[in-house]
Amino acid sequence: MYAAGLYGLKRAVIILPVAWTGAWLGYYAYTDTIRRSHIRDRNDELAKTLSRLPGEGSDFSKPAEEIEREALKKRYSSLKFAGRYWNPYVEWREQGAWEWALWKIVISTITLKLFYNGGVPPERPIPDLPLERPDFSLLYPSTTSSIYPVSSGKPDTTYRSPGSGGSDVPVTDKLTCTWLGQSTTYVTLDNLTILTDPALSDRTLPSRIAPQRLRPSPCELSELKRVDVVLVSHNHFDHLDPEAIKELGDSCEWVVPPGVGPFIRSFGVTRVTELDWWQETKHTLSRPGQKDKEFTITAVPNMHWSARSPLDTNATLWAAFHVKSHSEKPKSFIHLGDTGYSPTLYHAVGRVLGPIDLAAIPIGSYEPRWHMHLQHTDPEGAVRMALQMKVGKSVGVHWGTWLMSDEAYNKPPLDLELARQKLDVTEDQFCVLPAGKTIVIE
Ligand SMILES: *[C@@H]1O[C@H](CO)[C@@H](O)[C@H](O)[C@H]1NC(C)=O
Ligand SMILES: *[C@@H]1O[C@H](CO)[C@@H](O)[C@H](O)[C@H]1NC(C)=O
């Protein structure tokens, strides 16, 4: 009896992992075959349309660029099957969870990086990770220190009534960018205030084992007197902090990829717009005593993945967002979110949307390259995509905040400098900022 039980156990120890691995291999082989066949069909269709340009006849009553633009949008539309989203790019290859396990357990042990802390020095603040206060008097022109006396310390919590966008303070009409760490940026564009991927907490998760910030958040959310629009690129923890959802609530419009809406609504928020790749929404800025202003927000494809828990991998989409004003001299901004570098994709984005005035482009979390290059670009890829999208001013984000990869904590700006030299790009075109610093683009 006993021996037979042991025999059964031994068999189970062998059979279960083999069956588990076999099932996953089968799943990935099957889904990747479908994914690749979609890519082939889409490439064929795109090639057919482009080979007929410049158009003639009734089919081609639209200008050629418009036909090309529509064809590119179709080629790079989102791909969903088997209940999940997939990256429809030739550069992507399937990355199952085992790849992560291979990196984190096997390779990290061999390369002695199991407990590697990215070379972070012990002193605080870390000398080469500068931190500044945002320039609030520039952002909110008449909000001088007489309204918020220096002696009273932090200003009171901003009261954010539904639909208000925050306090009724004037906002500069300059195009400005303030980096608040990781992918959180605060952008003003023709008086509109935009907050991206809000995550200002100390840790990505309320858990002691979650990574801690290398430099504190440059300000508190309550100090951002106005937030009209929040753009959320995907649901990963370092890009979407529930504390921000609770604090901003219905005061602003939440623009998110498909599937991320329910999570935000679960906090009682109702002003949520889900945009699939290339879908647009119009946002109207209504301020007392001023003419209404219209903005177009477009979801843009990028190359990443999503998960809030082990059970919802890729059930929701990932996206970049493009905001454009319709003033006399329209201004535009793109928030790239998390993305790997795909030359085919970013050439297409450049053809559809370029040129773009301001871009927040990720430059960190890119090593080891064999694993990371698909989901996180390195600085060189970041510079290439800026060139392909014809960006006037790029700011490198997604670095120097939480360590989650193998490169040294201060490597991204150094590699960015090498990439600038290699590709003949100036620091004025593509820079990194001290956390909190406000810059004026125009
Ligand atoms: C999630 O999507 C990424 C990108 O397409 C893919 O590599 C990964 O295997 C997917 N995971 C699952 C469980 O489907
Ligand atoms: C827009 O910016 C201009 C110039 O800074 C300013 O005069 C105006 O009051 C601003 N409008 C709003 C609604 O903030």
From TrEMBL:
<keyword id="KW-0812">Transmembrane</keyword>
<dbReference type="GO" id="GO:0070292">
    <property type="term" value="P:N-acylphosphatidylethanolamine metabolic process"/>
</dbReference>
<keyword id="KW-0472">Membrane</keyword>
<dbReference type="GO" id="GO:0070290">
    <property type="term" value="F:N-acylphosphatidylethanolamine-specific phospholipase D activity"/>
</dbReference>
<dbReference type="Pfam" id="PF12706">
    <property type="entry name" value="Lactamase_B_2"/>
</dbReference>
<dbReference type="GO" id="GO:0070291">
    <property type="term" value="P:N-acylethanolamine metabolic process"/>
</dbReference>
<feature type="transmembrane region" description="Helical">
    <location>
        <begin position="12"/>
        <end position="30"/>
    </location>
</feature>
<dbReference type="InterPro" id="IPR001279">
    <property type="entry name" value="Metallo-B-lactamas"/>
</dbReference>
<feature type="domain" description="Metallo-beta-lactamase">
    <location>
        <begin position="194"/>
        <end position="399"/>
    </location>
</feature>
<keyword id="KW-1133">Transmembrane helix</keyword>
<dbReference type="GO" id="GO:0005737">
    <property type="term" value="C:cytoplasm"/>
</dbReference>
<protein>
    <recommendedName>
        <fullName>Metallo-beta-lactamase domain-containing protein</fullName>
    </recommendedName>
</protein>
<dbReference type="InterPro" id="IPR036866">
    <property type="entry name" value="RibonucZ/Hydroxyglut_hydro"/>
</dbReference>
